[in-house]
UniProtKB/TrEMBL annotation:
Descriptive protein name: DUF3048 domain-containing protein
The entry's keywords: Signal
Coiled coil recorded as keyword: no
Transmembrane feature ranges: none
DUF3048 domain segment(s): 51-193, 231-336
UniProt key word Signal: yes
InterPro entries: DUF3048_C, DUF3048_N, YerB-like_sf
UniProt signal peptide: 1-27
Source organism superkingdom: Bacteria
Pfam families: DUF3048, DUF3048_C
């Protein structure tokens, strides 16, 4: 196994009335420093993020995340804040377009998250796997029974209006609904939702240990992964061996976060093959999020076959290799791609 460079961050603390003095850089895995009532320094405990496996402050890593529905047709892209999501799901919706769901634990500094779009029933299953608070602006009819039964804590823009969301003037509706930390908190407080994980929640994925890099054995080459199963945005990923990350593209160009114009990247890609028939004669899709199936795990320029299964209907999806061993992910961001069973052959690797 290869060793991975430790990320470094620089902390700067204001000091003195007349001048500011820079504090030396500390390794990211050290505790963050604060002040107690006696004026003495105290460390904030670091924990392993349930989303990325990385070391993060406990105030972030043990606060329930929010799972935000994001538009992803040509009018809905680029999205704002998506580069800060620890996990992103992409699944097909009606009209051959896709919709994204970003799962965020560290979102306090984001001035915009969105645009926020409507719920599809299968996304409720995915969000619940992370014990997330689900943020959406409206819903398809097939999601209504689940929302009425309150299978998941959710913030519905149709009902909460300007309390949990706001609209901008730089885009036309419905692509101009956004949220941020203050609006999310207002909605969460209004609904009385706990922001602590359930006591029995132990996380979703298995991650590599600090400093360890996972390179799948016997994997096929996957330096370029093209998802032409999605016929509207035609997304693809390109592996950057120097950073160890995959760069994300769609609509023929780099996919960026509109907040900082930085290209989206991830360390892990999971392809989850699923049945996606329409609901009868309706255009809405009945995506199977529970029955299990096959897929691919892609990381560090390699791809291996996997299978997925859930431990219960509303429980966590687990991914296993050919030896029936649950896979370990590299620390970092993960994209989960829901690939239609009848379009698996449209995914190519180079």
């Amino acid at each position: 196994m290869r060793r991975k460079k430790t990320d470094i961050f620089v902390g700067i603390m204001a000091a003195c009335v007349c001048m500011a003095q820079a504090i030396p850089a500390f390794a990211a895995q050290q505790d963050l420093v604060g002040m107690n009532p006696d004026g003495e320094t105290q460390a904030e405990t670091q924990v392993k993020s349930y989303l990325t496996g990385e070391n993060v402050p406990e105030s972030i890593g043990r606060r329930r995340p929010v799972a935000v529905m994001l538009g992803n047709n040509i009018s809905g892209a680029p999205q704002s804040g998506i580069g800060h999501a620890g996990v992103v799901y992409e699944a097909p919706v009606e009209g051959n377009i896709t919709r994204l769901m970003g799962i965020f634990e560290d979102y306090d500094g984001l001035e915009r998250i969105g645009s926020v779009r409507s719920c599809r029933d299968y996304y409720l299953y995915y969000a619940n796997e992370f014990n997330a608070i689900y943020a959406h602006y409206g819903q398809a009819s097939y999601a209504v029974p689940y929302l009425e039964q309150h299978v998941i804590d959710n913030l519905n823009g149709i009902k909460m209006g300007n309390l949990a969301y706001f609209r901008t003037t730089d885009r036309k509706a419905p692509h101009n609904a956004y949220t941020d930390a203050a609006h999310l908190q207002a909605g969460i407080d209004a609904m009385g939702y706990s922001q602590e994980y359930k006591e029995d929640y132990k996380g979703h994925y298995l991650f590599a240990e600090d400093g360890v890099e996972i390179v799948p054995e016997d994997g096929i080459t996957a330096n370029l992964v093209k998802l032409d199963n999605f016929t509207d945005n035609h997304p693809w990923y390109e592996y950057d061996a120097e950073s160890g990350e995959y760069k994300r593209f769609q609509f023929g160009k780099e996919q960026i976060d509109e907040l900082d114009n930085q290209q989206l990247t991830c360390d892990n890609i999971i392809l989850q093959y699923s049945s996606c028939p329409p609901y009868g004669t309706d255009s809405y899709l009945n995506v199977d999020a529970t029955s299990g199936g096959d897929g691919k795990f892609i990381t560090r320029g390699k791809a291996i076959d996997i299978r997925w299964e859930k431990d219960s209907e509303w429980g966590i999806t687990h991914y296993y290799d050919k030896n029936d061993k649950e896979i370990q992910l590299n620390q970092g961001k993960t994209w989960v791609e829901i690939v239609q069973n009848d379009r698996v052959d449209s995914v190519t690797y180079q």
